[in-house]
Amino acid sequence: MIQRLDELGFDEAFIGEHHSSGWEIIGSPEVFIAAAAERTKHIRLATGVVSLPYHHPLMVAERLVLLDHLTRGRVTLGVGPGALPSDASMMGLDYSSLRERMEESLEAILALLQDEGTIDRKTDWFELRRAQLQMLPYTRPRPEVAVTAVASPSGPRLAGRLGLPMIALAAGTPAGQKVLAEHWRIYEEQLAAAGHPAPDRADWRLVSPIHVAPTRAQAEHQVSYAIEDAGGYFFRDSSVLTSVLNEAGLPPDAPKLDVFRASGMGCIGSVEDVIEHIERLRELSGGFGKFLIMVQDWADHDDTLKSLEVFAREVMPHFQDSNRRRLENWNTFHAGEPEFQRDLAAAGARARERYEETRRSGDGTR
């Protein structure tokens, strides 16, 4: 899939880390990225995300620097606390403590990525003693590091305090959409308080599930392949599912396609539907620079690739403004067609006249 995204001109692909539930099954984004890097040329490869409380920060920093060199600077470190309580449970971790551990780890990772000698740091779950990376990153001063923000203000607060870009992981959910503008406000305030430069909305990533086809009916038919299973995972938070069912007046056993339609959590539809969905996110957020498709595996492999191709061909040009000058040029040419046709006729007549003159004079060199 990532090879095809690279060919289609997608800018980046995020690969997540999960260890339970049997649906998102990549246990090591770094290993996956190393394999994808060998098979691609241009696309940026990112962890989406590394769950920092599950790893010693020195290991995370070392693996990032290695990937930065292997990809010649095509890697981004996306970080988060860990989304699945079942992951934390298997490792004997208190899920409520993961956010604090993530912050402690991220601060240590950023310190290690700076060329500032050795690092000494001790928390209740890791220790660094005269720690130092063996190599400086390929990307200077360091590879991009991005912080996830879901619904609480902790994500934008941390990203702003540390001067890092945000990933609005829940932009496709009602709760996430409600706080988009507030998150940006908090982010701006924290950046200013910490003395960082003013933020650029072009660096803000919003995430939402998308499946697009030539018509809405086709898109809905394609996701019927596995939307019941995908929906069971996507709506695994029973409070979210109950809220959607109650607000939409749907029964508990409603088909997952109906639930997804009612949730507003993404878009399964035509090109026009998808453009409208992303435009709505742009309006709610006040503007952002990067849109990420959350792949749900609800269609079969071929239809998933077709959806990504339609997105690249029909949706991306709308937002990247890549077709405007072509349309302007065509309209200019089309409007001047009568004049151009007169010019063509005159040029043909002149060529014929010159040919006849040459025949009459008998001088073939003219």
From TrEMBL:
Residues 345-366 are annotated as: Disordered. It comes from the Bacteria. Residues 350-366 have a biased composition (Basic and acidic residues). GO terms for molecular function: limonene 1,2-monooxygenase [NAD(P)H) activity. InterPro entries: Bact_Lucif_Oxidored, Luciferase-like_dom, Luciferase-like_sf. Its EC number is 1.14.13.107. It holds the Pfam family Bac_luciferase. Residues 2-284 form the Luciferase-like domain. This is Limonene 1,2-monooxygenase. It comes from Streptomyces rapamycinicus.
